[in-house]
Amino acid sequence: MYNQTPFVQRSLPNEGEIRTLSVARLVEKKGFLTLLKAFQRIHQEYPRTTLHIIGTGKR
């Protein structure tokens, strides 16, 4: 049931921006603090990365 989309190994492009996208409500239980800490580590190794966060607050 959960394996409807098969895993595909991807490689990073040699040039250009590498985008990470997060779409969710901006509430604590969605783990945005963890996301920011993880992205900080990713960005240190891959400086061409950007993080795009889309969402709104409480509902």
Global outline: extended
The percentage of residues in β strands lies in 15-25%
Q: How many helices?
A: 1
Mean of all residue-level pLDDT scores:
90
Order the strands across the largest sheet as they lie in space: 1-2
Major beta-sheet overview:
2 strands, parallel
Distance between the termini: 29 Å
- Helix percentage range: 10-25%
Content-based structural category: alpha+beta
Whole-angstrom Rg: 14 Å
Unreliable spans:
none
Order of helices and strands: EHE
Give the SSE layout.
Blueprint: E1 18-23, H1 32-45, E2 49-54
Walkthrough of the structure:
The protein is 24% helix and 20% strand. The longest helix is centred in the middle third of the chain and has 14 residues, at 32-45. The chain is an alpha+beta fold. It has one helix at residues 32-45, and strands at residues 18-23, 49-54. The chain has a two-stranded parallel ribbon with strand order 1-2.
